[in-house]
């Protein structure tokens, strides 16, 4: 079984560069389907398992994809007639595959996509995506594990109020509306930086999107979109994960390519704990020398505290002092990592949607399994400071969202290695 093995106790120092954002590149690659003239060139694409998956989805829809991982670039030619079906094989691997539904529906007048179903962090329905398509005139039906949307002629602009500011629903409706007839207003829209990146991309293709980053987005439909060149924004969650890596080891790390304006909630929470954060010419510098203080955190849609940083901050809070409460309001089941932290002697208990932590915990290395993508990173972070050896398995979660996470940590001074299923553990040598 593949695993990452960490020997705790090293302080991290040096510089690390963050990649393009997973949560920006997936919607942008899906939206590239909207172009019927010319080719899209997407730059700063991270080499992630999820990127390979979305490329396969796009290929299955009759596009030509040229992926150059060494150049961090994907070329998409979507000028031929698209096929209308996104299969279960892809949607089950990666929920973001649902984001092809808006573009396919807008172009073909019909889209058939496998139902994503629940996953480890919650049930994750798509009712708000479908409500948007319906408001634009599409007829929705379900059968054999698939959802279908169909419209006679063009989608019609509409006013859509989202019951929750869903990132995916905002993105799917935005792309569908880009080729609709008339104006679409999305109210209570998600405001994440990745929404702004997608809106910029649609506009670069010739679209007319205004207000992205606020809670009302206005999309004036156009009849045709064309290929363009687009750079993906830096990954604020990868940046945040390295911020925690620096702080948890009481290190001194500069994070290059981070955008502080995308991380205000995280920066202020870490500062409240006592982490020193400063902006310099070469990046965001994170230092933690003093004792850290426990705080209360509540996850919220952007600009609130991101749910995708919840488990990493839980790892950090195991090393701070005092009582802290972490409340998860975005996903109903995103505490699967708590049991794994407990294996490492983490002192915490779940009460409803909150985890109450009495810190510091005397962390001990243990065998643990990643339960989702961010939990994978968080367990590795805890391993950096645990006494002894931590072995983390189920690494396919990690590979969905982090490029060379172990290598980047090793370059900062961590005692960490990844071993493949066929390799024998070099533990004796390693210890
Ligand atoms: C690829 C990508 O960008 N993934 C991110 C995206 O996921 P994703 O787009 O799936 O997350 P959403 O913002 O849609 O989900 C937020 C909440 O809304 C609920 N909901 C969502 C849609 C819907 O139709 N009905 C509904 O009730 C969900 O169950 C969840 O409780 O935003 C999440 C919230 O910041 C992040 O954790 C994910 O990393
Ligand atoms: C939950 C996440 O991603 P996804 O929506 O792709 O599952 C994440 O990035 O932490």
UniProtKB/TrEMBL annotation:
<keyword id="KW-0670">Pyruvate</keyword>
<dbReference type="Pfam" id="PF00275">
    <property type="entry name" value="EPSP_synthase"/>
</dbReference>
<protein>
    <recommendedName>
        <fullName>UDP-N-acetylglucosamine 1-carboxyvinyltransferase</fullName>
        <ecNumber>2.5.1.7</ecNumber>
    </recommendedName>
</protein>
<dbReference type="GO" id="GO:0005737">
    <property type="term" value="C:cytoplasm"/>
</dbReference>
<keyword id="KW-0963">Cytoplasm</keyword>
<feature type="modified residue" description="2-(S-cysteinyl)pyruvic acid O-phosphothioketal">
    <location>
        <position position="119"/>
    </location>
</feature>
<comment type="similarity">
    <text>Belongs to the EPSP synthase family. MurA subfamily.</text>
</comment>
<dbReference type="InterPro" id="IPR050068">
    <property type="entry name" value="MurA_subfamily"/>
</dbReference>
<dbReference type="InterPro" id="IPR005750">
    <property type="entry name" value="UDP_GlcNAc_COvinyl_MurA"/>
</dbReference>
<comment type="function">
    <text>Cell wall formation. Adds enolpyruvyl to UDP-N-acetylglucosamine.</text>
</comment>
<feature type="binding site">
    <location>
        <begin position="124"/>
        <end position="128"/>
    </location>
    <ligand>
        <name>UDP-N-acetyl-alpha-D-glucosamine</name>
    </ligand>
</feature>
<dbReference type="InterPro" id="IPR001986">
    <property type="entry name" value="Enolpyruvate_Tfrase_dom"/>
</dbReference>
<keyword id="KW-0133">Cell shape</keyword>
<dbReference type="InterPro" id="IPR036968">
    <property type="entry name" value="Enolpyruvate_Tfrase_sf"/>
</dbReference>
<dbReference type="GO" id="GO:0008760">
    <property type="term" value="F:UDP-N-acetylglucosamine 1-carboxyvinyltransferase activity"/>
</dbReference>
<feature type="domain" description="Enolpyruvate transferase">
    <location>
        <begin position="7"/>
        <end position="409"/>
    </location>
</feature>
<dbReference type="GO" id="GO:0008360">
    <property type="term" value="P:regulation of cell shape"/>
</dbReference>
<dbReference type="GO" id="GO:0051301">
    <property type="term" value="P:cell division"/>
</dbReference>
<comment type="pathway">
    <text>Cell wall biogenesis; peptidoglycan biosynthesis.</text>
</comment>
<dbReference type="InterPro" id="IPR013792">
    <property type="entry name" value="RNA3'P_cycl/enolpyr_Trfase_a/b"/>
</dbReference>
<keyword id="KW-0961">Cell wall biogenesis/degradation</keyword>
<dbReference type="GO" id="GO:0009252">
    <property type="term" value="P:peptidoglycan biosynthetic process"/>
</dbReference>
<keyword id="KW-0573">Peptidoglycan synthesis</keyword>
<keyword id="KW-0808">Transferase</keyword>
<dbReference type="GO" id="GO:0071555">
    <property type="term" value="P:cell wall organization"/>
</dbReference>
<keyword id="KW-0132">Cell division</keyword>
<dbReference type="GO" id="GO:0019277">
    <property type="term" value="P:UDP-N-acetylgalactosamine biosynthetic process"/>
</dbReference>
<feature type="binding site">
    <location>
        <position position="330"/>
    </location>
    <ligand>
        <name>UDP-N-acetyl-alpha-D-glucosamine</name>
    </ligand>
</feature>
<feature type="binding site">
    <location>
        <position position="95"/>
    </location>
    <ligand>
        <name>UDP-N-acetyl-alpha-D-glucosamine</name>
    </ligand>
</feature>
<feature type="binding site">
    <location>
        <position position="308"/>
    </location>
    <ligand>
        <name>UDP-N-acetyl-alpha-D-glucosamine</name>
    </ligand>
</feature>
<feature type="binding site">
    <location>
        <begin position="22"/>
        <end position="23"/>
    </location>
    <ligand>
        <name>phosphoenolpyruvate</name>
    </ligand>
</feature>
<keyword id="KW-0131">Cell cycle</keyword>
<feature type="active site" description="Proton donor">
    <location>
        <position position="119"/>
    </location>
</feature>
